[in-house]
Structure formats: C-alpha cells, structure tokens
C-alpha cells in the first residue's frame, strides 16, 4: 500500500534533514530552498488526497485502516509545512534585525534563528495542524466523494444532493475557458469560484506578470480582474470525476 511504504518515510526524513541543514547556509539560499521544500510537501499532500479518493471509490468507505494512515500522513505533512513556516519567519525576522545592528551580530545569527524557531514552533498546536488548508480540503474532498459514490451506487439521481455538491455539478462543466478543451488538472479560483486547467492558467499568469500586467478571469461577466497563483487550488474531486467520465464514455 502506498500509504505504508518506505518511500513516504524517506520523504519525511529527507525534508527534516533539509530543514536542519539549510538553516546553516546563506539566508537567501535558505529561504529559496525552504520554499522549494514547501512546494514538494504541497504536491505530496495532493498525492495523498488523490490516493484517499481512490480508496473511497474502490472500497466505498472512509473509515478503513488505509484511510486512517493517509490522514496521519497528511497531518504529518501539515506539521512539516508548519515547521518550515516557523523557520522562514525566524530567518526573516532575525536577519531584518541584524541589518540594523553591528556586523558582529551576524556571527550569532544562526543561534538566534534557532532560538526563535524553537520559540515559534512551541506555539504550534494540533488545532493549527488541523486547520491547514490541504488538511481541510482532504477531509472535505473525502466527504464529498463518498457522498457522490454512495448516490451513484444507489442509482438515485433524483435524490437531493448536498448543497455544495449541487453547486459544483450545476455551475461547473469540464471545459477550460482558456483552452476550450476538457480540463486535466482543474483548479478552482477561491475568489470567484471559476475553474481552469492548471497548466493553462499558470501559463497565462506567468505571461501577464512578465509583461507587468494583471490576468483577468476569462469567464464572461466575471469581475475578478487580478487572478493570482495563490488564489488557485486543485480540485481533486472534479479531476477524478472528469477521469471517470472519460472512462465511461470511452474517450482516449
């Protein structure tokens, strides 16, 4: 099983080792590498969530031992992400202070960062881990997908849907407004609730930023004139729905 194999433990160990080692290097290199680590963790959390949806689809349950293990893994990812946030905040804060102090203050920067990091980390609670956006999304996606799977197996299409599922199904189709083809990795804009294919929208945002312009949501009538990458979140439930629809319709 994916959730119990050695690769996941190796991933956690590698990230922890990287966090410790990077705190000893130059400030800018440290921050750059920490952000790269966070991106890796975010991708890993998406993989864990997708595996969870696969288990719901295959087993029809959200309470299996495998699901429990996946939830433990995504909480561990949340903890790692929190540690990196604490370390980045420590580096930013202490280097800003050091710029206004005598040069010899830089010699103690490492110890100062470590002390501040430990202090910030001690304030991170279990509730903070539970509030991580991808942990919240993990649980919500599992709930939604389990409900959809249950309704599909019962064959009762006229049964009243959960309100948020109904909104998703009635307002969202599978076509990206940018490419005009079916989405592969659908992302939802948290500001205006419109969907785009991930690769297409990130390309457009990057292109607009290169030309120092803002990217407007392409949906007709939308007033969102400044779409940012931070506004976007991968919708794994919709992605799996698109994949299932392809299989059922025999599309390549």
UniProtKB/TrEMBL annotation:
- InterPro entries tied to this protein: Nse2(Mms21) (IPR026846), Znf_MIZ (IPR004181), Znf_RING/FYVE/PHD (IPR013083)
Q: Which UniProt keywords apply?
A: Metal-binding, Nucleus, Transferase, Ubl conjugation pathway, Zinc, Zinc-finger
Q: Which CDD domains match?
A: SPL-RING_NSE2 (cd16651)
Q: Where in the cell is it found?
A: Nucleus
Pathway entry: Protein modification; protein sumoylation
Q: Name one GO molecular function term.
A: SUMO ligase activity
Which biological processes are named by the entry's GO terms?
Answer: double-strand break repair via homologous recombination; protein sumoylation
Q: Which residues form the SP-RING-type domain?
A: 161-247
Which parts form a coiled-coil structure per UniProt?
Answer: none
Q: Name one GO cellular component term.
A: Smc5-Smc6 complex
Pfam families per record: zf-Nse (PF11789)
**Family stated for the protein in its record:** Belongs to the NSE2 family.
- Please give the name of this protein: E3 SUMO-protein ligase NSE2
The protein's organism comes out as Danionella cerebrum
Q: What is the lineage of its organism?
A: Eukaryota, Metazoa, Chordata, Craniata, Vertebrata
